[in-house]
């Protein structure tokens, strides 16, 4: 490591884990991401601990599981008592800058009901300095377009309609109406370069967010035509959507209700109506938006090279969540399938890399990013943090006591754009699930719906539910107990390490997992 420690945290939106060339996606061109993978460590088994955007980013930036931060859906407030990465960085002298968004709804107890932040999806998490706003309602980006001289249509979102007056919304081979030099990806990149050129010689932290490859699934030229539909991987799904829907009531609800309109601006029709050719074309567009991000990251990386900052900067590349992309007939980030939860994580540490090009198979989670950054920069990891620093894995194998399961949660209570709670006859607090899985089995526990259990070796894409199979009853019990133990051992613990004693307040520091295991063995 060098004396000057900068951190560039790149958070893209809706980039699923199997679209990483270093992990086998040879159809995708991302030379700058490839460079990060060559110089850093790529984590093969990495998940977001929750979806969608707001809850996922809350977990990423607080280091807390959903069951502890309780910002359970987009639009649900984040409790002001929780610290976050930005607040902790300020304690050690950093002024954390943010480009993009965090989709955070403020604590109403800290403001009032007339606060305009309660009229839209989310705002910037407390503690960050916004240097490239996107929220609220993308005003920063649309204002930038107008300042550049671009004439905005009356309905601003129409910039993401296909080019041409005769075009029809939906899956298309046509480019977006907005040119690449004025895309939202270009906007974020310009904001990043502006910040970096102005920060001077101070050590810096920059959260660089990109909106893509989030829908609408339409790309600016030339990225719209960069990939051929026939070269894209085929969707993973049953012969018809009704077979999929029979697996579980929640899946049935989503398959009956997801429309194309949220993914293709102005489109109609159900997501289940997309045939294989349409899905492959959608994936080609999705890949094009990824390459657009990569090309723009190249501009940022070039600047770090030119100014001698590449060696001084730890770079972390990740996403908030994944994307179903037609698998199981679904679009978006919902439910319990891996496509929504498995996301990329690549870490290139400052200085001389210790494991350049390594692919790490240990189970890692989005809550690990915050403690990793804090430990790297010399900050204190809060007692309440549910994640663990990844620094040991950047230099060698996982330490003793590392987690042997992946964990994630999903709260599907009613919000203004989806009503599963009402449709399934559940109360608000019954509308949730949690997942524990390892390399062999996956267990999905619902608060008030039937569970699911999959043998991932025999059924990697999770078509056959074994939860009611008598031959698997013992395993179902075992994994249900693992889920319960996980929740018990990660109950909120901000103050549980403190004690009142005759000598006054005492703070007890828990032994690291490896030491705890050794003590138990003795």
Describe what this molecule looks like in 3D.
This protein is of the alpha/beta class and 522 residues long. The chain has a domain at 6-239 and 274-395: Alkaline Phosphatase, subunit A, CATH 3.40.720. The chain has helices spanning 31-39, 53-62, 66-69, 85-91, 139-147, 184-198, 241-245, 249-257, 276-306, 338-341, 369-376, 391-395, 420-424, 473-489, 513-521; strands at residues 6-12, 41-47, 50-51, 97-100, 129-133, 205-209, 313-319, 345-348, 358-365, 406-411, 432-437, 441-446, 452-455, 498-501, 504-507. Strand 11 (432-437) and strand 12 (441-446) form a beta hairpin. The chain is globular, with a radius of gyration of 23 Å. The relative contact order is 0.16.
What would the keywords be for this entry?
522 residues, Alkaline Phosphatase, subunit A, globular, alpha/beta, 15 helices, disordered C terminus, eight-stranded mixed sheet
């Amino acid at each position: 490591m060098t004396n000057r420690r900068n951190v560039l945290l790149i958070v893209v939106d809706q980039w699923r884990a199997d679209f990483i060339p270093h992990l086998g996606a040879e159809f995708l061109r991302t030379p700058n991401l490839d460079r990060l993978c060559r110089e850093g460590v790529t984590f093969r088994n990495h998940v977001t601990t929750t979806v969608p955007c707001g809850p996922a980013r809350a977990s990423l930036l607080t280091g807390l599981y959903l069951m502890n931060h309780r910002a359970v859906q987009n639009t649900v407030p984040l409790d002001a008592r929780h610290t976050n990465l930005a607040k902790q960085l300020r304690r050690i002298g950093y002024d954390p800058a943010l480009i993009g968004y965090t989709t955070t709804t403020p604590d109403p107890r800290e403001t009032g009901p007339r606060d305009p932040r309660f009229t839209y999806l989310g705002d910037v998490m407390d503690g960050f300095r916004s240097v490239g706003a996107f929220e609220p309602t993308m005003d920063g980006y649309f204002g930038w377009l107008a300042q550049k001289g671009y004439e905005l249509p009356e309905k601003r979102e129409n910039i993401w309609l296909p080019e041409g007056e005769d075009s029809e919304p939906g899956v298309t081979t046509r480019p977006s109406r907005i040119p690449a030099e004025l895309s939202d990806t270009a906007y974020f990149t310009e904001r990043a370069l502006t910040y970096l050129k102005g920060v001077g010689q101070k050590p810096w932290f920059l959260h660089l967010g990109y909106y893509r490859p989030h829908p609408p699934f339409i790309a600016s030229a030339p990225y719209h035509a960069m990939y051929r539909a026939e070269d894209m991987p085929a969707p993973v799904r049953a012969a018809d959507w009704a077979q999929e829907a029979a697996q579980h009531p929640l899946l049935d609800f989503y398959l009956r209700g997801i429309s194309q309109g949220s993914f293709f601006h102005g489109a109609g029709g159900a997501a289940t109506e997309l045939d294989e050719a349409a899905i492959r074309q959608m994936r080609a567009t999705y890949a094009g938006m990824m390459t657009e991000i990569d090309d723009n990251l190249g501009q940022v990386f070039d600047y770090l090279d030119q100014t001698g900052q590449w060696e001084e900067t730890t770079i972390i590349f990740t996403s908030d969540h994944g994307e179903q992309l037609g698998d199981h007939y679904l679009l978006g980030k919902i439910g319990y399938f891996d496509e929504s939860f498995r996301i990329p994580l690549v870490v290139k540490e400052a200085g001389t890399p210790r494991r350049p090009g390594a692919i790490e198979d240990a189970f890692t989670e989005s809550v690990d990013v915050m403690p990793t950054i804090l430990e790297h920069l010399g900050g204190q990891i809060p007692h309440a943090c549910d994640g663990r620093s990844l620094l040991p894995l950047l230099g060698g194998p996982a330490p003793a006591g590392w987690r042997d399961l992946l964990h994630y949660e999903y709260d599907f209570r009613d919000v203004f754009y989806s009503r599963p709670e009402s449709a399934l006859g559940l109360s608000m607090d019954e509308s949730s699930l949690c997942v524990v899985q390892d390399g062999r089995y996956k267990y999905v526990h619902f608060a008030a719906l039937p569970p699911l259990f999959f043998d991932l070796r025999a059924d990697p894409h999770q078509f056959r539910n074994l939860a009611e199979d008598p031959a698997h009853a013992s395993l179902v019990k075992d994994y249900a107990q693992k889920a319960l133990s996980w929740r018990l051992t990660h109950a909120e613990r901000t103050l549980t390490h403190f004690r009142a004693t005759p000598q006054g307040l005492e703070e007890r520091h828990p032994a690291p997992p490896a030491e705890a295991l050794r003590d138990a063995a003795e």
